[in-house]
């Protein structure tokens, strides 16, 4: 079983130009919202090395999940609101499309983008609270929300399988000057039945 979160060596596309860069994914969290209280196991096949998890990952997580998102450790009774993981790996992120956003506009941009990606206000608030202090003071930020470039290296297995799975992973880089980049479009799934949500991100440096 591969472990999780990562120091990444990659090629970054900036306005059609490639450059070598290093990125550090940080604070992926997982929320579980079953329709009724359900014992759920979550494992992650990750192409890197685990650096931190909470609660402890071990061979995977096993929790009793409630519809409001409360997660209870069946062995200890301790409650959590999410599952947290970090790790290091070598991967390449896709910056062929995305957004160049002025630092001062980052909060408003993320509120809109995360809603389009399917996060609730509460989930988006937690995402923004974590990332905004790292981004809003940059002159500009290059932002691209990853799909298979992220999920192919961090495959989730959830039992029972959720009816709706939303995974939001933002790769971004602070810039001194704006660049041109083809915009992304988003299609969020409807949140029906047992819904699982994950968000995380990586700051790319080079």
Which class do the helix and strand fractions yield? alpha+beta
Query: How many structural domains in the coordinates?
Result: 1
Q: What percent of residues are in strands? A: over 45%
How many E-type strands? 14
Dominant shape = globular
SSE order, as H and E? Answer: EEEEEEEEEHHEHEEEE
Q: What helical percentage do the residues reach?
A: 10-25%
Q: So how many helices?
A: 3
Mean pLDDT: 88
Poorly predicted runs of 5 or more residues: 1-23
What's the story with the biggest beta sheet? 9 strands, mixed
* Quaternary state of the chains: single chain
Return Rg in Å.
17 Å
Distance between the termini: 30 Å
């Amino acid at each position: 079983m591969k472990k999780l979160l990562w120091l990444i060596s990659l090629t970054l596309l900036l306005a059609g130009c490639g450059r070598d860069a290093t990125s550090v994914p940080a604070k992926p969290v997982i929320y579980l919202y079953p329709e009724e209280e359900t014992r759920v196991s979550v494992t992650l096949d990750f192409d890197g090395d685990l650096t931190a998890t909470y609660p402890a990952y071990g061979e995977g997580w096993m929790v009793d999940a409630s519809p409001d998102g409360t997660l209870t450790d069946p062995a200890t009774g301790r409650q959590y609101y999410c599952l947290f993981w970090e790790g290091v790996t070598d991967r390449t992120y896709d910056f062929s499309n995305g957004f160049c956003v002025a630092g001062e506009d980052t909060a408003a941009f993320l509120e809109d983008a995360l809603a389009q990606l399917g996060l609730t206000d509460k989930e988006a608030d937690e995402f923004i609270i974590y990332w905004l202090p790292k981004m809003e003071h940059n002159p500009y930020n290059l932002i691209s929300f990853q799909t298979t470039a992220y999920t192919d290296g961090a495959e989730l297995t959830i039992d029972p399988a959720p009816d709706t799975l939303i995974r939001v992973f933002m790769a971004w880089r602070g810039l001194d000057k704006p660049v041109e980049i083809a915009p992304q479009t988003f299609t969020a799934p409807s949140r029906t039945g047992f819904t699982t949500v994950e968000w995380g991100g990586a700051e790319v440096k080079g």
